[in-house]
Amino acid sequence: MEKALESIVQLELDNQQKLKALYADLQGSSKQHASARDKLYKRRQELISGKGTPTAEELADYYGAHDSTSAAAAGHKGVPYFWLNALCSQDTLAEEISSRDKLALAYCTSVKAVYPAAGGAPTLEMSFSSNPFFINNTLRRCLGTDDPRVHSVTTDIQWKDTAHKLTVKEVKKGGGKKSKKGSKGKNTADDKGSSSTVRIKPCASFFRFFLPDGDSSSSSHSSKVPKHLHDPVALQDDEEGDEGAEERSGQKSAKLERDALMMKLITEEVLPKAAELYMSGPLESLDSDEDGEGDEGDGYQLIHGAAGLDPSELPGPVQPLLAALRHNQAQIEALQAEREQLRLKAKQQEEQLRKQLSQQRRGHLLPPGSSSTVVPRFWLRVLRSADAAALAVSPRDAAVLAHLADIRFSLTSVDAGSSKELHGKLELDFLPNTYLKLDNPTLIKEYSFEATPGGEPYLLHSKVTAAPLWSSPELDPTHKKGRDSKQRPASSIFQLFKQGGGKYAFNLSGSEKDVQAKANELETELLMELHGHLLIQAGTIYQQVAQEGWPEDDSPEADKAAWQQQQQTEAESSDSDEEVVSDDEGEAAHRAAARRAKQKQHGWRVTKAGVLMGFLVLVLLAEVFVFLDMTGLFGRSKR
Predict the structure, then answer these.
(1) CA triplet 518, 524, 530: central angle to 5 degrees?
(2) CA atoms in the 13 A half-sphere facing the CB of 107
(3) Spatial distance between the Cα atoms of 533 and 550, rounded to a whole number of angstroms
(4) Residue 296 has what pLDDT?
(5) What does each C-alpha distance from 324 to 38, 321, 352 come to in angstroms?
């Protein structure tokens, strides 16, 4: 056994070295591509701003007038409203941009992502020319990560006045009509004599992206921003008041998810495709007559959709710049395609190394002709070392999992339009045993995930293609007999091979929607533990746990006792008038407690029940004071 385990550990160490070299090569090529990409982005900004003129190479496919000097003479400098249109032409991002936001984005002169030299989360920088909305020349945003060294950073927007603060709006309460602002945002005479009051309310805005996420390190001025403006959930009417700490936690989470999506859209969709998005037309711009009254009544008029120009209709001097931008866009796309090919090649090499490791490790675990693993209970003990798996493995599961011959989980990336999906396949190979039928040695489940920025993949859907076939109902760990002798679901990791069985696998309770979401989260956590840690270091993990010593319930005798205890419990419950909690239910409760402890949810929680109890106590105290007053005790003290 020790020799086989040492061989497995050495195989894994060799495999890790190969993977490390593979990742180093990929990182080196990624840096080269990033440098080339940044040069192309810089050239694009020169063309957009008018600081650079098109070269002969950039105009090779352009057949119009080549007089680049005529642009300045005609009063045209650069490409008009480039970033306004690039941002608004990305369909998903456009939903986050209000009409008022467009008035400010019209002054955006550049958008770029700055990546740390050592790698990590980018900082988004948006530069603006002088505008009526805020004083800042540059707005910055960096999202925090799980790495404690990477903090969330954001710019505190210095709004010029409330009328131009895009993250709030004025709402009139009471009588009177809605206030109407003139070109400078002042109330008109229509409001004179009105008894109504004007309240400042949060509103949907692209610029909420720059609000702090609740971390005091987010901004040097974050304390100046009201807490109720920190998240998108606060956009709802707040007349009902604060629902408690749990709701605020959900609001913060919603803002973090929204910010992560917007960061992904800008850095991965807008920046690489900015010229293409701009030229998809029709264009939007500000009306040159700023004294007119626009859509929002703020003194600006926006030319929308079909009313805008097609890029081909822009003034002649701009056309050479557009031709140069097309050439620049083609270079960016070619660079992206080359980088994607290298990434896919590296991914294929990684999967090949993983398969090779799995085959060689299985050869050491199961020599030819062997009916059991040389290293006892190998995969069971490896699974129990994982946080998410340990929550799902019940005592009765252990007897079945002790016969595991191999675990495989593959994960491949697939393009799905504007997003990326990950396809996963989980396979559990079993040796012949008394629990599973002989014609059912392999359990298979397939997954589809959405690749989320800076976090774990999000489970979209799954499909069981080979479910367990149990030798008899008595040997099925996913069920137990109730008092009425009917089979009922039991907590078991094998519930994962039943559609919607995650809530039983992890012993979850609550509303169906919340339970399913939590079950998907825990199952994803388990799969990512397998792929990122367990399957490439299984032997090392087994060796480390062996040095610490196995728990008392980790033995074939303990497995047998768990099944005998279950049978005894079922027999007693059929003769008893009281409900008897089975051992696997007790174990499930224990694992649920462990899960709650892991989540580290400490501190006071404000609940409706708590508020009601406090109210009843106050009423009771009031009755006591009334009684004391009636008896004259208070009166005597006054006299």
Answers:
(1) 140
(2) 17
(3) 21
(4) 40
(5) 17, 5, 43
**Helix 319-365 vs helix 535-548: crossing angle, to nearest 10:** 50
The number of residues in the chain equals 639
Of the candidates 197, 202, 248, 257, the one whose C-alpha atom is nearest the C-alpha of residue 225 is: 202
Residue pLDDT, tens place only, 198-234 = 788 899 999 999 988 654 333 333 333 334 334 443 4
| Torsion angle of the four alpha carbons 557, 561, 564, 565, in this order, in degrees rounded to the nearest 10 | 180
What is the tens place of the pLDDT at every residue in 564-618?
Answer: 776 666 555 544 433 333 344 444 444 444 544 444 433 333 334 443 444 444 5
- Give the number of C-alpha atoms closer than 13 A to the C-alpha of residue 32, restricted to the C-beta side: 10
pLDDT of residue 74: 44
Q: Give SS3 for 576.
A: coil
Which residue, among 125, 127, 87, 43, has the nearest Cα to 277 in the 3D structure? 87
Q: CB atoms < 10 A from the CB of 286, how many? A: 18
- Token pair for 12: 């894994």
Number of DSSP helices (H) and strands (E) in the chain, helices first: 18, 14
Structure tokens, 399: 């007897």
Q: How far is CA 200 from CA 166, 203, 253, in A?
A: 11, 9, 24
CA dist., res. 427 & res. 410, Å (int): 9
DSSP summary character for residue 456: P
Whether residue 522 contacts residue 506, with contact meaning beta carbons closer than 8 Å, is answered with: yes
Distance CA 43, CA 127 (A): 17
Return the closest-CA partner of residue 346 out of 102, 28, 636. Answer: 28
Q: Are 380 and 372 in contact (CB under 8 A)?
A: no
Contacts of 627 (CB under 8 A, 6+ apart): none
Side-chain-facing half-sphere of 607: CA atoms under 13 Å: 6
pLDDT-based confidence at 396, cuts 50/70/90? confident
Sign of CA pseudo-dihedral 139, 143, 144, 145: negative
Higher pLDDT, 505 or 307: 505
Question: 117-140: per-residue pLDDT in tens?
Answer: 777 788 999 999 999 999 999 999
Cβ atoms of 380 and 404 closer than 8 Å: yes
d(CA 252, CA 243): 14
With a threshold of 0.90, does the pTM exceed it? no
Tokens of 293: 């009254």
pLDDT given for residue 479 in this prediction? 87
Please enumerate in sequence order all residues whose Cβ is within 8 A of that of 545, keeping only pairs 6 or more positions apart, or say none: 381, 385
Distance CA 84, CA 98 (A): 12
Q: Spell out the residues 6+ positions from residue 299 whose beta carbon is closer than 8 angstroms to its own.
A: 132, 182, 183, 184, 185, 290, 291, 292, 293
